[in-house]
Amino acid sequence: MLKNSEIAILKLRSLYESRGYTHFKMSKFEEYDIYAANKDFLGGESIVTFTDANGRLMALKPDVTMSIIKNTKDGDGLTEKLYYNENVYRVSKGYLGLREIMQSGLECIGDIDLYNTCEVISLAAKSLCIFERECILDISHMGIVSYLIDELSVPDDIKKQLIKCIAEKNVHGIRSILSENGSKDETLVELVSLEGNAEESFEELKKICGARPLHQALSELESVIKILTAGESLAKIRLDFSVVQDMSYYNGIVFQGFINGIPEKVLSGGRYDLLMKRIGKSKSAIGFGVNVDLLEDIFECSSEFDADIALMYSDSDDTAKVFKLADELSNGEKSVRVTKKLPQRAKYKQVIKFCEHNQ
Question: Is the C or the N end of the chain the one with fewer CB within 10 Å?
Answer without folding.
Answer: C
